[in-house]
Design a protein that fits this description.
Number of domains of chain A: 5
Oligomer: homodimer
Structural class of chain A: alpha+beta
Largest sheet of chain A: 6 strands, antiparallel
Number of helices of chain A: 17
Largest interface: A-B, 92 and 92 residues
Number of strands of chain A: 22
Helix content of chain A: 25-40%
Organism (chains A, B): Phialocephala subalpina
Protein name (chains A, B): Related to DUF1680 domain protein
InterPro entries (chains A, B): 6-hairpin_glycosidase_sf, Beta-AFase-like, Beta-AFase-like_GH127_C, Beta-AFase-like_GH127_cat, Beta-AFase-like_GH127_middle
Chain lengths: 696, 696
């Protein structure tokens, strides 16, 4: 059984206390767990499994996801409790976990059923609306919590009830004539079932996950029709009766059920659902290779995942790793539709969706070691995931706009009614080191693939012998990464080190250097690197070993959108970090930087700044730009829409220095909520056929 | 009673047979009336008033608007029959009109009710869904048809039934406790009622129109709630039960009923409904000044119309005079959201909506003589209205995209299931001269305001004396406009001539010239012109009198979008005409001109071309541009969304000559359906504070 899940492997890593991620995990331990526990209590979620009526239930569907809010917190708490921490604080968290487990156990029906909403608010309506009402989604999160709980507490107090619940669902859903031919409207249970199978070997869990994935989108699943259609008809719904998130009737693409997954050509619908679904699909491929008699049987699903990944990254992803341009269905728009803000036509980029991007990238890396997945995993992590939480761990962002606007200033909040993101961040930071590296052990041969760089130590047990690999680095601010390997001489360790797609060659032409230099006989040339596992360089581990990237790799660079996006803007990036400007550094801004432009030939200046919250340094970037002073352009100009070319030559502009900070760092220092990532571009140069460059 | 409606005044004008508009009206007379009659017959619409079942009725709501399709054709036919034409052809049309009137009369219920759908398809459901089912909309179009019929046939065979129907509706709707406090979901009846009042003096018509306008959007109209909510509840609908055009529940903004008109700050929803509604609102203001004891009582509605007009023109209108960026609700998006094509995120710009823009502009001109209305009326007429019909009068466009895309090539069609646009064009061209000029007569003082220029003669009866004003011009291709006035010496004629907003000064600084020059003592300076009725110059009529604009006024010019649109494109215009490029003139194009760029400093070349369909000449414009040859930019570039600045410098471009034709002329000469209005802009220059120009 392959148990390479971040949730299973994270405990093999210890972060260096002064490292970038250790500081953030310490803040979660210190502030976030407790803050979120208090909110769970004050909002009624904590006591919900006591099955009493709560005023929130008066408002129909408001408490639909409470099971999952509690489960995600509980899951995260168990990850952090696994490591040494403040004793007094841990006692509080530990007590809460135990009390919650007791309550959850007591809320289970004799037949195994376990769900708040259908026990307290709508009893008697079990499994009548798996499309909209998150019943199986909640079950999935409870299973994930149970796995985390068992891992830490070494008991089955939460896992046993979930295994009982699994049996009920396994009996209810499936291909049999008496069974429901349905699948979760919000995927999550599928990925949880596969992890449950990997931990316990329970074949019902695998079977059910496989059924949910392969049956999904079947247009003739029930009586020759779509399951969701028949399910809705049974509820007495009419075709015109539909959820608010569906723009039109029969929008099954909202939950990626408009056609079978194998036939889906583009990534559509609710972005969190899409990511959770594909995480399960890609993981099913991996598990199927062990389980099925024909190990290639489900490989067609890998092709589907690759196709949908490529569509997403190339045509539907923001530079920040955010996905989902459309507010109404919290999801994907058409190809290349990537406006930066609500007042430009959209931008949602939910924090949970980027967590989903990381999850999917991690599963894809298990199938194919390729930088195309790790690069995006790192991009999402450092920008839209990390940026979803404030430096002090107490405030959050649900949406990750690339620009603010008057109706949506850039401001963080304590919590949300639909509270998926905050506890999702907690549990993700809990297992973060599980995303950093993966390892395989065959006899005395060990391969460690390093996807993310940070100062930390991985400890492996190789046939009873201890192998440790330590990284030291200043990442994400710069390289090198120095590796210290401690392994018995009988063990052969190969290290695959990721070469980021944004790395730039040294002056001598190599894209990276490994020292001692004899480790690097062919040099770090791009050509060579493309013939290996794409985006990784592979070395026999020696200690110490230093991986370096050129200074240019960590210099600010400018990103351009694909021209089909109609986003004629420049975005500043540095290493894995996307940058933005905020009014707190640029107090002259009045219009969310809408009328501020920069040139792609602008010179950057870097300043090292100090953040007192985490006592760390970060790089601020200063870029000269132009600020339009004439406000006529934003008032009515005349009798016609738009204006004539040449008009803007008469508008005065002021030269300004625009100060940029890392996108994740926004919303931490007060201000008026003016923020922008992409700035209008002033220049353009093109190369002519037959040579020569055209400049207007 | 003021009867200045285009429908009433058009017959005072005779077009010069060789003029731009006479040729098009002749085509409608020759081809369109007969073609559309044949389609009315073949689709079942013609015989529908015989009240037999038709297979189209099987499909629920498909035939909801059939009354209006017939009515609009009938209305248009009567306008054209009023003028001399081909005898044989006219006999066919005349016979059809008479037969239709007989059938309509025979379809009326004894109590006056008259509607196909609720007589044949859903009897017994009268007035149970005025929000969605077009019952009152159809009534409005039948009233307009009756007015046109009475005008031509001088009998009341169609008007009498409509007056009887009016009494039924007037009894049914109103403020009384037994009455329905509702109003049409699709406005139209309101504007028809006001014209009916103006023609007949029927106070019930005025009262009902006023009620519909003033009650609209009342949030507590019935039992403390919105009328549409109560109406839907009576039908047994749930909040989640909604039309496909509503993106979310309770989207009353779709029909401009989300709040009272006086409280609406921005123009929202279905664009045809919005235009028909505001046409009625502005006309109600005019009529109220005659009817009401306090003639200023409804002037607040004028302010509302002005506010919504300005929002529309400045923030929600395409350069073509098209409105409505959003496909789903055939209407307005957020401010400045004006993508050019479906694959850029939207573009609808329905032909009927631009006809509505003309109607509203005409009513606003009745309230305030201002070029701001006439300019937009002309813009819509020459581009999105005229462009809705092919040169031969047999093919149509429902949507007026500014760029084609693979899923929506630029192709015309014979007809549409929802057939509002084709007969709407017929009737609009029928009364076109009614939009050209308006006149007021007080004793022997006559004022003629000329809004549109074309070779035509207006004949007025001034106290029994005949006054004629003739225009001769090559408009829209150039000026001058020469006026010949024939009036008895006892009559004083003042002529207000429109100065288009796009006019550019002569070299000597004047914006226009009137000769003989003694008529022009202060010169045509902009300053002077702004102190008069804005956008008009006023002269005591002499004959001949010549109004000239500079050659620069009719040279091609480039239009820029407001920067908040994110449309970094240049659009070619010339006089009132917007230009586009088609593959039929540019056979190298493969990608709908997506990768073709131009510079605002590009030099234009004009070529006179011949159109054989109408035997007329038009101006083609050639603009040098760059075509990107490298297709990598449209494939996946790497591991990341977008790419790094500098990359595009390596892409090769080819210099091309792009041939542009008037937008209205597109889709007349075959081709593959590649078309575009706005081309990506290559250059930009800005002025710095303190002087100097910054060029990258």
């Amino acid at each position: 059984m392959d148990s390479s899940y971040p949730q299973e492997t994270f405990h093999r890593t210890t972060f260096e206390p002064s490292s970038f991620w250790a500081k953030r995990r310490a803040i979660v331990r210190k502030n976030t767990l407790r803050t979120q526990l208090n909110i769970l209590k004050s909002t009624g979620r904590y006591d919900a499994f006591r099955l009493k009526w709560h005023p929130a239930y008066d408002d129909g569907h408001k408490a639909l996801f409470w099971d999952s809010d509690v489960a995600k917190w509980l899951e995260g708490a168990c990850y952090f409790l696994a490591e040494e921490g403040d004793e007094e604080e841990d006692a509080v968290i530990d007590h809460a976990v135990k009390e919650l487990v007791d309550m959850i156990r007591s809320a289970q029906w004799k037949d195994g059923y376990l769900n708040l909403f259908f026990t307290v608010v709508k009893p008697g309506q079990r499994f009548t609306n798996v499309r909209d009402l998150h019943e199986l989604y909640n079950a999935g999160h409870l299973i994930e919590a149970a796995l985390s709980h068992q891992q830490h507490y070494k008991n089955n107090l939460l896992l046993d009830p979930m295994l009982q619940y699994l049996e009920l669902i396994h009996e209810k859903f499936g291909p049999g004539p008496e069974q429901l031919h349905g699948y979760p409207g919000h995927p999550e249970m599928e990925l949880a079932l596969l992890r449950l199978y990997a931990r316990t070997g329970n074949r019902h869990a695998y079977e059910l996950a496989k059924y949910f994935v392969t049956e999904r989108g079947n247009s003739h699943g029930v009586q020759g029709k779509h399951f969701y259609l028949i399910e809705a008809q049974k509820r007495g719904e009419r075709p015109s009766d539909r959820p608010d998130s569906w723009p039109t009737a029969d929008s099954y693409w909202y939950e990626q059920a408009h056609k079978p997954i194998l036939e889906q050509e583009t990534i559509e619908g609710h972005s969190v659902r899409a990511m959770y679904l594909l995480t399960a699909v890609s993981d099913l491929v991996r598990q199927s290779r062990i389980v099925e008699t024909d190990p290639t049987q489900l490989d067609v699903y890998k092709t589907a995942c690759e196709r949908l990944w490529d569509n997403m990254v190339n045509k539907k992803m923001y530079f920040t790793g955010g996905i989902g341009a459309i507010d109404q269905w919290e999801g994907f728009g058409i190809d290349y539709f990537l406006p930066q803000s609500t007042d430009e036509g959209g931008c949602y980029a939910e924090t949970c969706a980027s967590i989903g991007v990381m999850m999917l990238a991690e599963r894809m890396l298990q199938l194919d070691l390729s930088g195309k997945y790790a690069d995006i995993m790192e991009l999402a992590l450092y920008n839209t995931v990390l940026g979803g939480m404030s430096q002090n761990g107490k405030e959050f962002l649900y949406e990750n706009h690339l620009a603010s606007c008057p109706a949506r200033p850039s401001k963080r909040e304590d919590w949300f009614d639909c509270a998926c993101c905050p506890p999702n961040l907690t549990r993700t930071l809990g297992i973060l080191s599980g995303y950093m590296w993966s390892s395989t052990i065959q006899g005395n041969d060990v391969t460690i693939s390093v996807h993310l760089y940070s100062s930390a130590t991985l400890t492996l047990d190789v046939g009873g012998q201890k192998v440790t690999l330590k990284q030291e680095t200043n990442w994400p601010w710069g390289s090198p990464v120095t590796f210290f390997l401690d392994a018995p001489s009988s063990v052969n360790v190969t290290i695959n080190m990721r070469i980021p797609g944004w790395a730039k060659p040294f002056e001598h032409g190599m894209l990276w250097e490994v020292t001692p230099s004899h480790l690097n006989p062919f040099g770090g040339f791009q050509k060579h690197y493309l013939t290996m596992s794409p985006g990784y360089t592979s070395k026999l581990g020696k200690s110490p070993m230093m991986l370096s990237f050129s200074p240019a790799s960590f210099a600010p660079r400018m990103l351009l959108h694909h021209p089909a996006t109609n986003q004629n803007t420049l975005t500043i990036a540095r290493g894995p970090l996307i940058y933005c400007a905020e009014d707190v550094d640029n107090n002259w801004v009045q219009d969310h930087f809408k009328t501020v432009s920069i040139s792609s030939s602008a010179k950057f200046e870097e300043i090292i700044e100090q953040d007192d919250i985490l006592d760390e340094r970060y790089v601020k970037i200063i870029v000269p730009g132009l600020r339009r002073l004439d406000t006529r352009l934003y008032a009515a100009i005349g009798y016609f829409p738009g204006y004539e070319a040449g008009y803007e030559d008469y508008l005065e502009n002021q030269e300004v220095d625009i100060k940029f900070i890392p996108y994740f760092y926004r919303g931490n220092r007060g201000g008026r909520g003016h923020m922008r990532v992409g700035f209008r571009r002033l220049d353009q140069a093109v190369k002519l056929l037959g040579g020569g460059t055209w400049r207007p």
